[in-house]
């Protein structure tokens, strides 16, 4: 049948009001041009990188009694092991790493 078990796709949790506001914003800005309005906008982005922790759902297939085999375990550190966040902005006139 082509069906597979998958984790659901993660999307922002938006209320009906959020969707209405996004649509209103898009309609108000649909005629903006790069030469006039968009050149005054600064864009930002943020990414998180984990050092030891896996953010996803990890599963293993094992038989009874195999729970301590190295292939069936996942090491962890106290308090998640730490990570780092990178953040930056850019615009037509600005670059700020």
Task: Describe the overall structure.
The protein has a domain at 33-73 and 80-96. It is built from one helix and three strands, in the order H-E-E-E. The protein has one helix at residues 16-29, and strands spanning 43-50, 83-90, 95-96. A hairpin with a 4-residue loop joins strand 2 and strand 3. It starts with 15 loop residues before the first helix and ends with a strand. Pfam families: HTH_Tnp_Tc3_2. This is Transposase Tc1-like domain-containing protein. Residues 2-31 form the Transposase Tc1-like domain.
Uncertain segments:
none
In terms of quaternary structure, what is this?
Answer: single chain
Q: Strand-and-helix sequence, N→C? A: HEEE
Shape: elongated
- Largest sheet entry: 3 strands, antiparallel
Side by side, the strands of the main sheet go 1-2-3
Sheet/helix structural class: alpha+beta
Annotation, overall tally of beta strands: 3
Number of helices: 1
Radius of gyration: 22 Å
Q: What is the residue-averaged pLDDT?
A: 82
**Binned strand content:** 15-25%
Cα separation of the termini = 48 Å
Portion of residues in helices?
10-25%
Structure, briefly:
The protein is α+β, with helices and mostly antiparallel strands. It has a domain at 33-73 and 80-96. The protein is 14% helix and 19% strand.
